[in-house]
Amino acid sequence: MADNYQKICVHCQRPAVYFDRVRKIHLCRDHLMAFVEGQVLSYLKKIRLPPVIGIAFSGGKDSTALLKAFCRIRSELPCSFLALTVDEGIEGYRQDTIQAAEEICKTLDVPHQIIRFHDVFGHSLDQLVAGSERNACTICGILRRRALEMLAKEQKIRVIATGHNQDDHAQTALMNAISADVKKTFTGLAESSWYTRRIKPFSEVSEREVTLYAMLNGLFRNLPECPYAVSSLRGEVRTLLYRYERDHPGSMRNAARFEEEIRERLGDLFIRDSYQACIHCGWPGSGRVCQVCAVLQEKRIT
Fold it and tell me: What CATH class has 29-271?
């Protein structure tokens, strides 16, 4: 069937590079880039920004696109920013992405700090996963968050921006529903006396838009995928949601907004800064032994 919409930008009549299936509009290169950057700026204007923001920077397309967007709107921001990278130690994967991260930061003239699992935990992720009954993504998530917190504390940063896009939000919402994890739905909603605040400027930008934005800026790299990702629940949920999005445009956005609506309406009922100091490391956790120490203790036992 022929396309019912002319393939020219709805704003300027120039050739389009992107078709928004939800809004049913075509956008040219410049207007797609302006849309993405406008979404980021609009998000940041709603937040009380600190003097310095840390940008969680893996070197992948999402965090690269976010870093570029920050650079493009730098003159409109009342703060400075720097890139924070966690090297988990994944052989055959992380070396390439770390190199990409270093090169991109140098190209964009952004200060860059790296923290490594092996330096702070005594083991790489590969070593911690070997022989463990825990899912690799679970171990990685627990330790990566701690490492990022340690790096932020070292750099005196209280707010971290992540490259999570709208698709990521939708996937997380469905994963939380499947696992009945109410606590995770409200994680990071309130400012904590313990942890840095997490913000997600791409929350209203789809993965396709983020990817194309990176490509149009010449920053998209064909990097290897994490070898542990194939076993994750997120991968299954992503496939399911992509199928729904294909057949029902807007499903991804609606799933993401549904969880945000729940957070906004019911957040006050669930927000608690009820952390207690871990008896081993002193870092805050939900029990006497934090999850990080639990993972490391398992490694010592095995």
Answer: alpha beta
